[in-house]
Every structure is written in structure tokens, then in C-alpha cells.
Design brief:
Number of strands: 6
Structural class: alpha/beta
CATH class of the largest domain: Alpha Beta
Strand content: 15-25%
Helix content: 55-70%
Distance between the termini: 83 Å
Number of domains: 2
Shape: globular
Largest sheet: 6 strands, mixed
Radius of gyration: 26 Å
CATH architecture of the largest domain: 3-Layer(aba) Sandwich
């Protein structure tokens, strides 16, 4: 009886230690977040001071173009690190791009904003700020998305009104078509462009880099399995990759094609979707979505091959290297015009 009593006391003590640990972790996290918010707000205020100083004509009259060199030197001498010329320029840019302080996100650090402000347009800056907050990207993840020209790839799949909405609200997944980017960029696989790889090799590398692949796919994807087996009419079929999308509440089937997607691939995916609707979907699930991910696609063939299909079969291109920035910018500018 006494031993049992001691065990209860020990268990309660462990709960006490665990509870205190959780409080400390939460407190430290909140403290770090508050420090980050205060730092961003402080840098915003410094940016405001600089802009107001310039607008009064003092910059031109007193220091000319050497303002930031002198300011960086004097502030560093008086207050220590953190006042490099580039940092000061980005503080000014922070204020100019977010003139209302309340529009700054308390979830983003100065390191986030420093990267976001490297964007070339106000549309991009607004998009990456909103998307970083929504997706809870780390600075490293943000860098990768910016390098892969995510905003441009999403923007080119919509119209002018859609581009403005994308910049103001971020990317919202509301229907199956919102899952696609044009193209998907898989540079993290490190497959040389001229390498003659097999579909199985592509699949293996995607699984080995699943965290990067999920980041490229976007928010809401949960990985279920690879080479998912289906028995249909006495024959066995295998799907390359199976996911569940928690926002759309449906299975997402992905088949990989090393070369061009053809009509037989579309027909096979349609078969898989019919199977999933009848055999795999649970109550409350929406109809499954199929994505054929290939290196090429013929738009005319796609139009004819999918015209009579009621299932949601989406075709998407992928590339193994980062897109050409100038090319995407020119295409986006034409669309905006």
C-alpha cells in the first residue's frame, strides 16, 4: 500500500516538472516572439526617421549620396553591430513598403523581412510577406521559395485580377486547380539536366527529399505512401505517390512521368480515381484529385484527352533546375499590361 502511495506521489511530481517545463517553453517562445516584434517595429521607426530626414531635403543638402555610409559608421561606433549600410537601406525600404506599422506581421522576424524586401516589386513583397505568415516558413524555406520564383509561377496561371488578389491575400487553396504551379521546380533533387534518369529514380529521390517536396507542393499535403497497390479486375496497379489534402479533404494521387504525358497516362489516372472513389474514400471525403507530373505536356492533346473525363485529372510540368527569372518577369509584365 505504501509502495503504491509512493508511486502516485512520484507520478504527480513528474507531472509537476512536466507542467513547469511546458510553461517555460511557452514563456520563452512568447518572449522571443515579442523581442522579434519589438526589433521589427524599431527598425521600421528607424526607417521612418530616415525617410522623413530625406524628405526635408537634409540628405541632399548635407550629405548627398554618402548619407548611408556616414550613418552606418556613426551608429555602429555609438551603438554597436546591426547598422550596416545594407541594413539601413532595408530599414528605409521596410517603412516605404509598409507605411502603416500595423500591417507588419508579428509572426515574421527581421530576417524574414530582410529577405522579402529583396523582391523587385510591391506585388512580390506583399505576397511573400502574407505567404510566409500563412505557411509559417522559416527564413531558409522563404529563401527557397523566392529563389524558385513561386510568386511568378502562381501568378502566370491566373489573370490580372487574380495576380492582385494573390499579392493582397496570398495563395489560397480552395479548389483542385489551386494545387498546381507552372512548373513545379525540383532543383533540390540535384539531378543533372542531361542525366537519363528513370521514373523510379525520380520517385526515389522525391521520397528521400520529402520535406523539400512537400514545401514545393504547398500547404495541406500529408504523405500516405509510395507505390500504393490497387487490385482492379484481377489486375494489380501501383500508384507512384499518394497524399491526402487536409484543406480540400480529399486524396491526391500523383503519377510521375519522365518524359511527355500522353493520353494513355490520362486514361490510367482516370481509372485510379474511379477506384479511389469507390474503394478508398471515407464518409466526408471529397472526390479524389489526380496529378500527372511530367517533363512535358501537349496542350492540344490534353484538351482532347480530358474533355470527356468527369474526374479531376490535372496535368503539370516539372523541371529540375530553377526557372529563368528574366523570362518569368517578362511574361508577368505582359500579363499585367
Amino acid at each position: 500500500m505504501q509502495l503504491f502511495h509512493m508511486e502516485i506521489l512520484e507520478q504527480k511530481y513528474k507531472q509537476l516538472v512536466s507542467g513547469i517545463g511546458q510553461l517555460l517553453a511557452t514563456g520563452r517562445e512568447n518572449a522571443a516572439q515579442q523581442i522579434n516584434t519589438i526589433l521589427v517595429y524599431t527598425y521600421w521607426e528607424i526607417g521612418r526617421y530616415i525617410v522623413e530626414y530625406e524628405q526635408k531635403g537634409n540628405e541632399k543638402a548635407e550629405y548627398g549620396s554618402q548619407l548611408f555610409d556616414k550613418l552606418s559608421k556613426d551608429l555602429t561606433t555609438s551603438y554597436g553591430k546591426g547598422f550596416s549600410r545594407s541594413n539601413l537601406l532595408y530599414m528605409r525600404k521596410l517603412y516605404n513598403n509598409f507605411p502603416i506599422r500595423e500591417t507588419l506581421s508579428h509572426k515574421l522576424t527581421w530576417s524574414h523581412y530582410f529577405e522579402i524586401l529583396k523582391s523587385d516589386s510591391d506585388l512580390e513583397i506583399s505576397f511573400y510577406a502574407k505567404q510566409s505568415e500563412k505557411e509559417k516558413w522559416s527564413v531558409r524555406e522563404l529563401k527557397r521559395q523566392m529563389k524558385s520564383m513561386l510568386f511568378h509561377r502562381l501568378a502566370l496561371s491566373t489573370d490580372k485580377e487574380g495576380i492582385l488578389r494573390l499579392a493582397n491575400e496570398g495563395h489560397e487553396v480552395q479548389q483542385a486547380e489551386d494545387l498546381l504551379k507552372d512548373p513545379f521546380v525540383l532543383e533540390f533533387l540535384n539531378i543533372p539536366e542531361q542525366h537519363l534518369y528513370l521514373e523510379s529514380e525520380l520517385e526515389e529521390k522525391l521520397i528521400n527529399n520529402l520535406q523539400h517536396f512537400l514545401l514545393e507542393l504547398g500547404k495541406g499535403f500529408a504523405f500516405i505512401g509510395r507505390q500504393y497497390r490497387m487490385s482492379i479486375g484481377g489486375k494489380h496497379f501501383r500508384l507512384d505517390l499518394l497524399f491526402y489534402h487536409r484543406i480540400l479533404k480529399c486524396f491526391v494521387l500523383i503519377d510521375l512521368k519522365r518524359g511527355e504525358i500522353d493520353h494513355t497516362d490520362i486514361g490510367q489516372m482516370n481509372l485510379y480515381l474511379d477506384y479511389f472513389k469507390k474503394e478508398e474514400a471515407s464518409e466526408g471525403d471529397n472526390e479524389p484529385v489526380g496529378i500527372l507530373l511530367g517533363a512535358y505536356k501537349d496542350h492540344i492533346l490534353v484538351e482532347y484527352a480530358t474533355s470527356s473525363i468527369t474526374n479531376k485529372v490535372l496535368l503539370a510540368k516539372y523541371q529540375l533546375y530553377l526557372p529563368d527569372k528574366k523570362q518569368l518577369e517578362n511574361a508577368l509584365n505582359k500579363l499585367l499590361e
